[in-house]
Amino acid sequence: MQRSAVFFAVVLMAAAIFVSGLEPPVSAMGKSVEAPRLSIEELRLLIGNSEVVIFDVRLGDEWKKSNEKIQGAVREDPEKYKQWAVKYPKEKTLVFY
Asked: Which of 23, 48, 68, 70 is the most buried (most CB within 10 A)?
């Protein structure tokens, strides 16, 4: 249980951001923009919600080395967001970590 809490804290501190529409992850845009952040509790409430898509946008090596992943998260390459962003409805809430 504690490991799970630590994982969520690391994920959130590392940039779990709340994004609406089809905006790519803030860091991928090369802009310095404040993005809303989620608390651990807020993220937990979103997991499993059909109106929310949670994206794991860690790069390949980082993702492969990690034993921790959010169940149900969609893995996408942040550098190729223009190719995959069109697959997701604008009406959904998008969360990137």
From this structure: 70
Listed in sequence order, the residues at least 6 apart from 60 whose beta carbon sits closer than 8 Å to its beta carbon are 77
Are 95 and 52 a contacting pair, CB within 8 Å?
Answer: yes
Distance CA 87, CA 61 (A): 24
C-alpha gyration radius of the chain? 13
- Residue 37 structure tokens: 């952040």
Residue boundaries of the structural domains of the chain: 2-96
For the stretch 24-75, pLDDT in tens is 445 545 556 677 888 888 988 999 999 999 998 888 888 888 888 888 898 8
Q: Is 94 helix (H, G, I), strand (E, B) or coil?
A: strand
The reported pTM is: 0.60
Inter-residue long-range contacts of 1-8, CB under 8 Å, 24+ positions, other chains counted: 3/68, 5/40, 7/68, 8/40, 8/43, 8/44
